[in-house]
Please model this.
Amino acid sequence: MQLPKSRRRQKLREKKCQYPGCGKIFFGIHISKYCPEHRQDRYRIRKRTKPEDVNIKNQTFKHTYTEVITMVMDCALEGCEHQFEVKIYPRQYIYPKYCPEHRNEYKRIRHLQLIGREDLIEQMKSESESFELEHGGAEGDAEDIDAIEDVA
Ligand SMILES: [Zn+2]
Ligand SMILES: [Zn+2]
Model:
């Protein structure tokens, strides 16, 4: 008998569902924690429910422009020299703070690793819960892991 073929050619192995009281055996990739049933949204174990701080990925830019203008901003990531254009809209004050490349958290971490700022990675980890998805703490839809991108 052959194991079902995964879309991403990830190796499936026998896993035990980590959902409290379940313990069902299922086939999943190494970071899967829950059986297909407990992967569903309604079973998701909620973590801290603190509202996401918009300033993790975005910045508040107070302005008084009354028409749309284009501004050049600097990427807020330590050591990144990139600049990017942002359209500023009247009465809208939340804007991305990273250059397009660094709007992806994974890429920010890679960048910080390259410049040797592990301390900033730690800081970012504590600020962002989605970070856990990159490190095997994923609940549920682990198969889609490399599709995860920050939506700025
Ligand atoms: Zn289960
Ligand atoms: Zn950048």
Observations:
- The pocket of zinc ion (ligand 1) is lined by residues 17, 19, 22, 24, 34-35, 37-38 (CB under 6 Å).
